[in-house]
Design a protein that fits this description.
The chain is built from 11 helices and 10 strands. The protein is of the alpha/beta class and 336 residues long. It has 2 domains: 133 residues, ATPase, nucleotide binding domain (Nucleotidyltransferase, domain 5); 173 residues, ATPase, nucleotide binding domain (Nucleotidyltransferase, domain 5, 2-Layer Sandwich). Strand 4, helix 3 and strand 5 form a beta-alpha-beta unit. Helix 2 runs parallel beside helix 3, helix 4 crosses helix 11 and helix 5 packs across helix 6. The two termini are 32 Å apart. It binds 5'-O-[(R)-(carboxyoxy)(hydroxy)phosphoryl]adenosine (KG4) and zinc ion (ZN). The site of zinc ion has 5 residues, from helix 4.
């Protein structure tokens, strides 16, 4: 093991996540999910999220340090997500981390949440490095990123409307499958035929951009029509077919980026990358093309503290850290 020992916080949305890493090695990675709190609202309620972060962050910090058998005196730095995310939620982790760093006079490293996702693959496999194409798909984002070097990122394309996870969540809600919708549709698609129904793949002439709102309307219209006629097909077939449309869109854009930029590595991150069908399709396509696919384990695809820690440790090792006046930025954009 090598690299700085960093305590890291991620509170951009609905998970309070704290980790201790040493370089790319995870010493502890703990999390308190708020899914149960938000489920009855069918989505994340920002004020509820911020309050829950406040309630759990202290105990989680103690647990992360205890699990890692690391004393605060042994830390080399403290990292936290700066944005993008929900302002109240971000402020909890960011302020807590900065205060802790200040009190111990440790370097404080503010990390872009999306850059955190770019670092996630190194936690499973430290050989992951740019140049690479990284596909990021979560409840808030869907992007195809070209990583020329660490810190040099170009967003090649992104969704022009809903994020992929948002599409899963909205459709699952409409179908009465509960929240969060991605895992619900993933489960409901089990045994279903992905080719049973041909739902639209939007923007066929765009190499990297994505769009999911047309698909959402098409699936809702399809279900309403069949419900009214009393001819609703098996749920598994509908779920597998709509999932295939989302997966197809993501896989095609990823492979376009790989071909156009001649990279030999693909990284991935974001909650949607926990989707079993997406993982299977990416593996197939990468293997056909002889591309190395770095697909983090599902717990490292969804929001976590370790990915923020890995990014923090990388920059700290190069002497780069943030000013005490740094603030959260809900509009932080990768590559700017
Ligand atoms: O990265 P993440 O944990 O949080 C952010 O949005 O930043 O991603 C959460 C999203 C949700 O929209 C959820 O429905 C989706 O990831 N998701 C999935 C799966 N697991 C989580 N989508 C499809 N299939 C899954 N198995
Ligand atoms: Zn995320």
């Amino acid at each position: 093991m090598s690299g700085p020992t960093v305590l890291a916080f991620e509170t951009s949305c609905d998970e309070t996540a704290v980790a201790v890493v040493q370089g790319t090695e995870i010493l502890s990675n703990v999390l308190s999910s708020q899914v149960g709190l938000h489920a009855r609202f069918g989505g994340v309620v920002p004020e509820v999220a911020a309050r829950a972060h406040v309630e759990s962050i202290r105990a989680l910090t103690h647990k992360a340090l205890a699990d890692a058998s690391v004393h605060p005196d042994d830390l080399d730095g403290v990292a936290a997500t700066q944005g993008p995310g929900l302002i109240g939620a971000l402020l909890v982790g960011f302020s807590y981390a900065k205060a802790m760093a200040w009190a111990r006079q440790l370097p404080f490293i503010a990390i872009d949440h999306m850059e955190g996702h770019l670092f996630a693959p190194v936690l499973d496999d430290p050989t992951f490095a740019p140049p690479a194409v990284v596909v990021l798909a979560s409840g808030g984002h869907s992007q195809i990123v070209l990583m020329r070097a660490w810190g040099e990122y170009e967003v090649l394309g992104q969704t022009i409307d809903d994020a992929a996870g948002e599409a899963f969540d909205k459709l699952a809600r409409f179908m009465g499958l509960g929240y969060p919708g991605g895992p619900a549709i993933d489960d409901a698609s089990e045994g279903g035929d992905p080719a049973a129904f041909e739902f639209p793949r939007a923007l066929p002439d765009r190499r990297y951009d994505l769009s999911f709102s047309g698909l959402k309307t098409s699936v809702i219209t399809f279900i309403r029509k069949h419900e009214a006629a009393g001819t609703l097909p098996p749920l598994a077939d509908v779920a597998a077919s709509l999932q295939e449309a989302i997966v197809d869109a993501i896989v095609i854009r990823t492979m376009n980026a790989v071909e156009d930029h001649g990279v030999t590595r693909i990284g991935a991150g974001g909650g949607v990358l926990a989707n079993r069908r997406l993982r299977e399709r990416l593996r197939e396509e990468a293997s056909t093309r002889g591309i190395d696919l770095y697909l983090p384990s599902p717990v490292l695809c969804t929001d976590n503290g370790a990915m923020i820690g890995a990014a923090g440790a990388y920059w700290l090792e190069r002497g780069m850290y943030s000013d005490w006046s740094s603030q959260v930025d809900v509009n932080l954009k990768l590559g700017r």
